[in-house]
Design goal:
7-stranded mixed β-sheet; homodimer; 2 domains; alpha/beta; 10 helices; about 300 residues; about 25% helix
Chain lengths: ~300, ~300
């Protein structure tokens, strides 16, 4: 039951010799969600040994080149590999036109179908749901329409304690109910309380991805208490003016948001290419929100399963 | 007086974890020529410590995605860095429309001018010339119009032997003529033969780039005797049929061309992603043309200066 984020690229606007352009992959129970797709994403996917064919859903925050220019090559590669599974792309509606024009010229026909899901970046709404996970949009504040994404696991059921099924002779038909919290009445009409039969369920894990954005408190309730928050920190705090001008955040902005939303862990990224060393940005953020780390290409953040108390 | 090739990408069609998509940089006397521009080229340029601002001329062999998708990000980066020098792009005319549509949507305005040079891929003609180098097209045989490029140094002048200017009291006005091969008549009307005054000039160095192409003997006279030939070898010889079907070459095809053209050194590349290890392709080629090597990303091939005999 994996819940693991892989950072594929952590630079903003232009790549550096060590940082690729923005893309993340979230692995939820072996379902791989690609979030943004800057140039070089398909190479980073390969280098990080993620199977291309496992990616069926791509979430695009906004239509700036550093977040989408990798789609051209990725789609081309899927086509060359004769992909036949539908590819779902969640983005601003205009991306459909951009990709259609591109596909028409370079691919002619595709071996697979692209299903476009047009987002309304100003709304907080559920845009994806399956039996394991829910994805919702987080309206952001940028120069063009932009939204973040929150990935939240569906609630886990309680787990049966060891050997209780055999010991109390529980019929299979009642197991689901017990995992949902029911007590059990045995053949002697004794009530066995649910607590004796089960362990508390695993906690719901969550990840929020917020880039590109200026500082905006409006997102705080939407990302409240997430296990992992990725928030852009394009600039250090001394470039606050530059951040405001370009609708980006400073490391301090990101930490304030993390602190207000009481998240568990903050990852900074989308660093301006001017920073060869981002430790000063991390240190600035840690003064406000100590559990802060810098995104590095190829790094993985796993959220372990742990039980509710 | 550098003449050095850097391989930025050596995979065909789709990248692998070790091979990026096609792009080469040729450094001729500190002028940097970019040849093809697959996705990720700007990252490879940075990783190989080539200064982006030194690239003023880009040569595109043909309009398949794996040779051009890096242009979108590269142009965007040039714009973000406020480039102001003209960028010359040599390619099939259609690229101008593709890039114009792209720039119109993503960049709006550019800080620099792109000068498009429309190639006629079926002709062998000079498309670039400066005081150091001449570039000509090599018509290739592919599924879409495609051409290779030959880079040939301009002839070097003879070099003056040590101390001859002082010893024979040669006026500055006559030095150019002597370097061109003239004898010198001194104040006593003695003729000093050119051989006594000068060393033979450096040999002209040359590089030919041939991808994508099926085997075609027509290119042999056009690349005759080059110091370095890059010829695609998408497949091993046992996939000859596949090569023919897709208008690509086998390692054997490349070696035959190198042998017929009596080139000095052959580099194979544009390898199909199916080959994790390309040593079998190199060995096959070496049976026909021993001085063969496999292109590896980040590798440099320097052609040293040496004098004519």
């Amino acid at each position: 039951m994996t819940f693991e984020l892989t950072i594929l690229g952590s630079s903003s606007a232009v790549p550096t010799s060590k940082r690729n352009l923005t893309a993340h992959v979230l692995n939820v129970h072996e379902r791989f969600f690609l979030i943004d797709c800057g140039e070089g994403t398909q190479m980073q996917i390969r280098k990080n040994k993620i199977r291309l064919g496992k990616i069926n859903n791509i979430f695009i925050s906004h239509l700036h080149g550093d977040h989408i220019f990798g789609l051209f090559g990725l789609i081309s590669t899927f086509n060359l590999l004769n992909r036949d599974t539908d590819l779902h792309i969640y983005s601003h509606p205009e991306l459909e036109n951009i990709l259609n024009r591109h596909i028409e010229y370079f691919e002619k026909t595709l071996s697979f179908k692209i299903v476009y899901h047009h987002l309304k970046p100003k709304l907080n709404e559920v845009i994806y749901e399956d039996d394991k996970i829910v994805v919702e949009t987080i309206p952001l504040k940028h120069r063009v329409p932009a939204c973040g994404f929150k990935f939240t696991e569906k609630p886990h059921l309680r787990n049966l304690r060891k050997n209780v099924v055999q010991f109390h002779k529980i019929p299979i038909s009642q197991i689901q109910g017990i995992r949902e919290g029911n007590d059990f009445v045995n053949e002697d009409n004794e009530i066995i309380s649910n607590e004796k039969l089960t362990l508390p369920p695993y906690k719901i894990r969550s990840y929020a991805y917020c880039t590109d954005t200026a500082f905006t408190e409006k997102i705080v309730p939407l990302i409240s208490g997430v296990d992992l928050l990725f928030h852009e920190a394009t600039y250090a705090k001394n470039l606050k003016r530059q951040a405001k001008l370009t609708s980006h955040s400073t490391s301090e902005d990101a930490a304030k948001i993390a602190s207000m939303a009481k998240v568990k862990k903050l990852i900074l990224g989308h660093f301006s290419a001017r920073y060869k060393d981002v430790s000063s940005l991390v240190n600035e953020a840690r003064e406000i929100f100590p559990n802060t780390f810098a995104a590095e290409d190829g790094e993985k953040y796993q959220i372990e399963l742990c039980r509710e108390e």
